[in-house]
Amino acid sequence: MSPEKPARIEFRKQPKQERSIQRVDVMLAAAAQLIAEKGVSAMKMTELAAVAGVPIGSVYQYFPEKAAIVTALFDRHALLVQQKTKEVFATVTSLDHAIDLVCGMIDWYYREFRGDPAYMGVWLGTEMDGDLLKLNIQHSNRVAEIFLNGIEPFLPADSSIDLQARTQLFSHLIGASVRLAIMSDKALAVRMLNEWKQVIRATLLAEPEARQ
Asked: Tens digits of per-residue pLDDT, 129-187?
């Protein structure tokens, strides 16, 4: 069991053989389909087994409960975002460049998940479960850490920015803003994200005002 995950949201048994991996992939694909259609709360394990074409025992062989399935799907989304963030912020050359990269990441994030009907269902599922919500926050903080490590070498020595606090805050807000855009009309979504990028350019790396 991972120290960051309770047993109830982890795989009961990790698939190792190719046949087992393929079976789990089929179950997760069926879960993503059902979540996209009706949401996490309405999805039933028996229904998942039927759609996947596997015995219900096979579902419970790998997943102790529904939250573990949501975790497996969420982890796939989170890994994709973290890998993209690492790739992008390994190229930082200046603070101005870092801001450009953040705005580019927002566009990528929106494009990547706008067409994924299961994404919002999985994310909303994490909001309704305390253990999954913690996992979501850990992911957001990990993205912030990658960004922090990419820009910290370029921050002036006399900077007063609390970089850890600010990057964690903006990481969470960026995720929330993109999800709002995904749920909105496309034309409005583009306008909202353009406004949000203007806010980021003006505030993300702005030095705090001196206190009187």
From this structure: 899 999 999 999 999 999 999 999 999 999 999 999 999 999 999 999 999 999 999 99
Sequence-separated (6 or more) residues with CB below 8 Å from residue 29: 52
- Answer whether 0.85 is exceeded by the pTM: yes
Query: Measured between alpha carbons, how far is 26 from 126 in angstroms, rounded to an integer?
Result: 21
Cβ contact 43:66 at 8 Å: yes
pLDDT the model gives residue 153? 95
Long-range residue pairs from 25-31, CB within 8 A, at least 24 positions apart, any chain: 26/52, 26/53, 26/54, 27/52, 27/54, 27/58, 27/59, 27/62, 27/63, 27/69, 28/69, 28/72, 28/73, 28/76, 31/69, 31/70, 31/73
